[in-house]
TrEMBL record:
Keywords: Metal-binding. It comes from the Bacteria. Its cofactor is a divalent metal cation. Pfam families: DDE_Tnp_4. InterPro entries: HARBI1_dom. Residues 3-70 form the DDE Tnp4 domain. This is DDE Tnp4 domain-containing protein. Residues 1-36 are annotated as: Disordered.
Length: 80
């Protein structure tokens, strides 16, 4: 799963960082471009989910929120 720079050393995929005096290598730049592309899609999915009232006002216990998020995430696929 793509993550931002705050998740370094967590096992998640984070973008390459440049260091003083050393620019990113061409392969690292390409990796960062792909990372941005994937992360943007994930962030857009999260933003769409925030529009659903069931997730904003969800007060369910246990697995309820997990199932609600999965259901909302699948809704755009049902309309296609």
């Amino acid at each position: 799963m793509p993550a931002d720079g705050a998740y370094i050393n967590t096992g998640l995929v984070v973008p390459h960082r440049s260091h003083p005096g050393r620019p990113l290598l061409p392969g690292e730049e390409e990796d960062n471009t792909e990372h941005r592309r994937v992360r943007a899609r994930v962030e857009h999915a999260f933003a769409r989910m925030r529009h659903y009232k069931i997730l904003r006002d969800c007060r369910q216990r246990g697995d309820g929120l997990h199932h609600a998020v999965q259901a909302v995430a699948r809704m755009p696929h049902l309309a296609a």
